[in-house]
């Protein structure tokens, strides 16, 4: 994963010294679709690509439902 570090423009004082905050920021470097993710998971486990795909699809639906119900 590529990560860039961004400096926050604001500085804050802590205990008499000035500190600068830095925040990691993900860098876009291509895409993976559900099919390629299923391939990756299947290659690292003992279950088939089709089974991995089914689990990923169920997970995306479950995450959506949880967010809709305000559960994080």
TrEMBL record:
Residues 11-69 form the HU domain. It comes from the Bacteria. InterPro entries: HU-HIG. This is HU domain-containing protein. It holds the Pfam family HU-HIG.
């Amino acid at each position: 994963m590529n990560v860039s570090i961004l400096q926050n423009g604001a500085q804050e004082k802590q205990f008499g010294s000035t500190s600068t905050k830095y925040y990691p920021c993900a860098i876009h470097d291509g895409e993976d679709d559900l099919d390629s993710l299923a391939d990756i998971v299947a290659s690292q486990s003992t279950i088939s690509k089709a089974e991995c795909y089914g689990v990923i699809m169920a997970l995306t639906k479950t995450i959506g439902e949880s967010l809709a119900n305000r559960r994080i």
